[in-house]
Amino acid sequence: MFLSILSLLIGFALLIWSADTFTHNGAKVARIFNISPLIIGLLIFGFGTSAPEMLVSGLAAYDGHPEMSIGNAFGSNIFNIALVLATTAIIYPVTVEKAVLKKEWVFLFVSSLIAGFLLMDGFLSFVDGLILLALLLLFLIYVFNESKKGNSIEIEPYEESIDNQEKGKTWLLLLISLIILVSSAKLVVWGGTNLALAFGVSDLIIGLTVVALGTSLPELAVAISSALKRQHQMIIGNIIGSNLFNTLGVLAIPGLIHPFQIPAEVISRDYIYMITLTLLILILSIKLKINRYGGLILLAILASYLYRLVWI
Fold first, then answer.
1. In the CATH scheme, what is the code of domain 2-311?
2. Residues forming a β-bridge with 168
3. 159 has pLDDT over 50
């Protein structure tokens, strides 16, 4: 029991550090190759902060716990909106560009609908995984095409300059953080699985709560930092990009590695909350700003979701 809790705590701490370092140095590498702010926001930050979810999902599926994988994917999306976005909006109202609602948000919402349709039969198959990955590839192609058009979201990258002497150090830190990311994800899966067995809690619930919250901490750290710096588009870009990677990448992994029967409550409870919160991003942004009242609404929905998980 003690070792399982210690494994989770150490794993989460290393996840936060490695994800932050990976994202930070990934942004540096992006600037070395003159990659646009849109890609930095939606791709570098979106992928960087979703890397823990992807690794945890892959390792959980490989170890024979695919329910933890799908719980991690849906749970992380719920926490990203109802905790991360809510917290940042309460700290400082978040401004949303109209272009984001017309393009990136639409892609996220449609992808979520397609994912729900694929899961309606109660089985996540290898073919379902391939379809989700194909949509992720389509999103990546879209991002690069938008970047070439110069229609990128104005997200401020890190400001320090990078000289030739720093390039080697940047690549080294990127590699080290990736290795630690893999190792810490393994710790989280091991600790979460053992706790589930010890308390008689299902892998799905552990994935939806403990693991999902832990792997959403990098998004929370980036969002709070961005809110304090008034970098609104970095917040929205990070959350939309992260949720897209969770929906299309994290969810695809267990289907490709270990196809399995999905518990009925995933669709009737978890998916409903996820798609509702995704829709609320649009509704609360109707005036192109998510204010503190919007943040409180999101937190209230999170509270009701956690209540259902624990008591119903």
1. 1.20.1420.30
2. none
3. no
The span from the CA of 123 to the CA of 169, in Å, is 45
Q: Which residue has the higher pLDDT, 227 or 13?
A: 13
pLDDT tens for 172-184 read 887 888 788 778 8
> In Å, what is the CA distance from 95 to each residue of 8, 202, 228, 281, 288?
35, 39, 13, 12, 6
pLDDT tens column, 56-106: 788 888 888 888 888 888 998 999 999 999 999 998 888 888 888 888 899
Report the C-alpha gap between 269 and 305 in whole angstroms: 8
Residue with the two structure tokens 């304090």: 228
Cβ-Cβ contacts under 8 Å for 27 (sequence gap 6 or more): 40, 44, 45, 157, 158
The one-letter amino acid code at 37 reads: P
Domain boundaries, the chain: 2-311
Cα-based distances in Å from 81 to 60, 89, 145, 166? 24, 11, 27, 36
Q: Using CA atoms, how far apart are residues 278 and 285, in angstroms rounded to an integer?
A: 11
DSSP state of 122: S
The dihedral formed by the CA atoms of 99, 142, 235 and 169, expressed in degrees to the nearest 10: -140
What residue type is 305 in one-letter code? Y
Which DSSP category does 97 fall into?
Answer: -
